[in-house]
């Protein structure tokens, strides 16, 4: 009971006539990587945006560390960080300025900012280029910068929307390793991906989502066993058939 | 508070771009340039007009006539030469634009009241303002000669009378009345000056409004495109502070733009004031009529412009919420440009006061109309109109902030989109 950090219950979201979510429920435990996997348009981003306090649900409830999303969005914002999919940073700022700008929102004292920046530098792995404008960064560098900013403050819950999408194998691998490391240090992660294979290695538990509904939740191994499949992609195919 | 200044700093940094600085410098430069042109045109008009004269009549009277011309403000250059053909040839080759030839025996004939014709040769080398100005000079020269000759004639025959009294027995005095103030002077001159002073104001005012909103809109569009807005909306800072920081940053930049605008405007007015100082009489008249900007007037005009910029920025942030990327930002700015264009065009080609009441009300409802009409109303002492305009813009601005706050505190900041014929994926 105590080790559950996020409770999502019967979440619904309509965009006008489109029913993007039709009753989504799941829980994220402390210190785990929980992944929402499903095809494009399944409702992953919508779910994450609601949890990240960006969208208000049409129906259902979200509870983060005992705080209700509708009543206490401010409290939730203090405990989470959100990495939007395909996001960028302010192109006219240098990488370092961007990190400092974001760090200032979470720091309680000036030393905190330095500590966050130090952590961020370890994550991005390029110290010199941090003095350059973000506009000059490659896609992989930008993604690492944004991941660094999402993890450097060691939030209770990091919400990462498609953290590796569009990146090459090496960059994806590095990002997955960084995520794993931070979970060891007590950060819980809620992430999404349409790449079901990579999630197999990364996540502790997955929820398979399609058409705004969750079809299955469980550890990857348990799901594969249950559907006697080699990988999660096959599990998904069995489920939608 | 620390979080807010952090945010404000970023917003300002984002707005003060190289582009902005260049365009502000450009504005000052433009004002300065126009002011200078005006000043040099005015000086040119004040200079003596150059004419070349080939005098075949070597008499005392014709010399007196030329003295009279030079007294009337013409600069006489006498040409030497054997005959007329040679003088014309010389003028042709030496870039002389206007040659006056006084024929042989001109004054002798004149004394018998048989006038010989004076020949004027205009050399047209290009079709421009100067060539038509030359034609006007010919007329002026001839009419001046006629005046001199007829005055001479009247003086010799009616020595007891002033020739001017014989020619124009009735005199008139011109008065200009503006509100309660009356002064002696020509209405045509006064309105000419005021008109020429105010003709460029709308152009540059429009540029400032359109430019600063474009700037804010592209900053918003970039925030949307890069999803930095999404990130910002999830950090622990209240939505109201985000809106206020955006507004404050835009206002700061708007204030700087308005300040620079006023600075340029003073340069520009300096060009006219120089002109008026030279002709002391006109200067006195303008002063008497209160048709000069006092420091206080500059401040009032500045406030009016500043509020218009604020309204534009508030509207822009609302429009900015609806854009998805830089490209749609360009489409989105159009309604705003229309709103600015309407008072702009009307103030250029017509007088807002002369429009019918419903049209007038419609125009007054556009907040941007007010600074366009402010400068004239300030000159004319209609401060009430200007202050109501300022009050109205303030109210509009407060409403806009309120709407912004509402939008930012709901989903709409992310889901509100206008689509222009584009289909959803
Ligand atoms: N702002 C929006 N307005 C209207 N429909 C939307 C909006 N955002 C998402 N949708 C729709 O909601 C559904 C779920 O989208 P999304 O959550 O982005 O899926 P995913 O992230 O899994 O690809 C899709 O059908 C999408 O078209
Ligand atoms: Mg998505």
TrEMBL record, chain A:
Alphabetical keyword list: ATP-binding, Nucleotide-binding
A Pfam family annotated for this UniProt entry: ABC_tran
Domain ABC transporter span(s) in chain numbering: 6-236
Keyword Nucleotidyltransferase: no
Example of a GO MF term: ATP hydrolysis activity
Listed name of the protein: ABC-2 type transport system ATP-binding protein
TrEMBL record, chain B:
Residue ranges crossing the lipid bilayer per the database entry: 15-34, 199-222, 242-263, 298-323, 329-349, 361-379, 385-409
InterPro entries: ABC-2_transporter_component, ABC2_TM
GO cellular component: plasma membrane
Record's protein name: ABC-2 type transport system permease protein
Membrane topology: Multi-pass membrane protein
Lineage: superkingdom: Bacteria
Organism of origin: Caldicoprobacter faecalis
Residue ranges of domain ABC-2 type transporter transmembrane in the record: 20-403
Localization annotation: Cell membrane
GO molecular function, one term: ABC-type transporter activity
Record keywords: Cell membrane, Membrane, Transmembrane, Transmembrane helix
């Amino acid at each position: 009971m105590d080790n559950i950090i996020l409770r999502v219950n019967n979440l619904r979201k309509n965009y006008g006539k489109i029913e993007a979510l039709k009753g989504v429920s799941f829980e994220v435990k402390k210190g785990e990587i929980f992944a929402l996997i499903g095809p494009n348009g399944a409702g992953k981003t919508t779910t994450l945006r609601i949890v990240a306090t960006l969208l208000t649900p049409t129906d259902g409830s979200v509870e983060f560390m005992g705080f209700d999303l509708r009543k206490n969005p401010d409290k939730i914002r203090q405990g989470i960080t959100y990495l939007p999919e395909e996001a960028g940073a302010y192109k006219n700022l240098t990488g370092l300025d961007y990190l400092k700008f974001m760090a200032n929102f979470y720091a309680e004292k000036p030393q905190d900012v330095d500590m966050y920046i130090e952590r961020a530098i370890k994550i991005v792995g390029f110290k010199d280029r941090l003095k350059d404008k973000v506009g000059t960064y490659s896609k992989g560098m930008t993604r690492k910068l944004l991941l660094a900013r999402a993890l450097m403050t060691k939030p209770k819950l990091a919400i990462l929307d498609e953290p590796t999408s569009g990146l090459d194998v090496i960059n994806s691998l590095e990002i997955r390793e960084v995520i794993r490391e931070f979970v060891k240090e007590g950060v819980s992660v809620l992430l999404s991906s349409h790449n079901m294979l990579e999630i197999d290695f990364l996540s502790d538990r997955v929820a398979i989502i399609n058409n705004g509904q969750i079809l299955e939740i469980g550890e990857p191994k348990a799901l594969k066993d249950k559907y006697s499949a080699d990988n999660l992609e096959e599990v998904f195919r069995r489920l939608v058939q | 508070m620390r979080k807010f200044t952090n945010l404000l700093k970023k917003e300002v940094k984002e707005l003060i771009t190289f582009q902005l600085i260049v365009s502000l410098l450009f504005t000052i430069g433009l004002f300065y340039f126009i002011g200078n042109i005006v000043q040099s045109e005015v000086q040119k008009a004040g200079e003596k007009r150059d004419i070349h004269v080939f005098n075949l009549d070597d008499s005392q009277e014709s010399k007196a006539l030329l003295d009279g011309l030079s007294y009337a403000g013409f600069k006489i250059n006498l040409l030497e030469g054997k005959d007329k053909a040679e003088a014309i040839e010389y003028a042709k080759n030496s870039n002389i634009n206007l040659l006056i030839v006084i024929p042989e025996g001109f004054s002798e004939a004149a004394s018998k009241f048989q006038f010989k014709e004076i020949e004027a040769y205009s050399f047209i080398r290009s079709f421009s303002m100067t060539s038509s100005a030359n034609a006007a000079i010919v007329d002026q020269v001839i009419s001046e000669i006629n005046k001199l000759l007829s005055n001479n004639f009247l003086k010799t025959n009616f020595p007891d009378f002033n020739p001017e009294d014989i020619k124009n027995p009735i005199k008139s005095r011109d008065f200009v009345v503006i509100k309660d103030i009356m002064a002696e002077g020509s209405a045509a001159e006064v309105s000419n000056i005021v008109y020429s002073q105010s003709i460029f104001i709308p152009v540059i005012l429009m540029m400032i409004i359109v430019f600063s909103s474009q700037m804010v809109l592209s900053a918003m569009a970039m925030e949307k495109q890069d999803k930095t807005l999404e990130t910002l909306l999830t950090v622990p800072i209240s939505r109201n502070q985000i809106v206020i920081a955006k507004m404050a940053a835009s206002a700061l930049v708007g204030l700087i733009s308005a300040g620079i605008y006023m600075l340029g405007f003073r340069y520009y007015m300096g060009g006219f004031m120089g002109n008026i100082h030279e002709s002391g009489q006109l200067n006195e008249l303008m002063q008497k009529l209160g048709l000069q900007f006092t420091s206080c007037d500059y401040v009032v005009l500045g406030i009016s412009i500043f509020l218009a910029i604020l309204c534009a920025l508030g509207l822009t942030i609302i429009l900015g919420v609806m854009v998805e990327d830089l490209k749609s930002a360009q489409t989105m700015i159009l309604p705003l440009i229309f709103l600015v264009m309407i008072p702009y065009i009307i103030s250029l080609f017509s007088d807002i006061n002369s429009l019918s009441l419903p049209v007038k009300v419609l125009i007054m409802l556009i907040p941007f109309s007010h600074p366009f009409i402010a400068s004239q109303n300030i000159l004319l002492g209609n401060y009430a109109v200007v202050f109501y305009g300022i009050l109205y813009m303030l109210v509009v601005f407060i409403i806009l902030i309120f709407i912004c706050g509402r939008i930012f505190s709901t989903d709409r900041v992310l889901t509100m989109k206008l689509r222009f014929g584009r289909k959803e994926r």
